[in-house]
Amino acid sequence: MIGTGHVMRCLTLADSLREHGVDSIFVCRRLSGHLGEYIRTKGYSVEWIESKNDQFRPEEDAISTKAILEKAAQPVDWLIVDHYGIDRMWEAKVGPLAGRLLVIDDLANRPHKCDILVDQNAYDRMETRYVELVPPGCVQLLGPRCLLLRPTFYEARRSLRMRDGIVKKLLVFFGGSDPTNETAKALRALAQWPGGAPPFHTEVVVGSSNPFRQEIASLCARIPHTMLHVQAENMAELISQADYALGAGGVAMWERCYLGLPSAVTVVADNQAASVRYAAQQGAVTFTGNGADSNETVYAEAISRALESPQALTEMTHKAFNLTASDPLRMESPIIATMMQMMNEDTTS
Question: Where does the record place the catalytic residues (predicted)?
Answer without folding.
Answer: 6
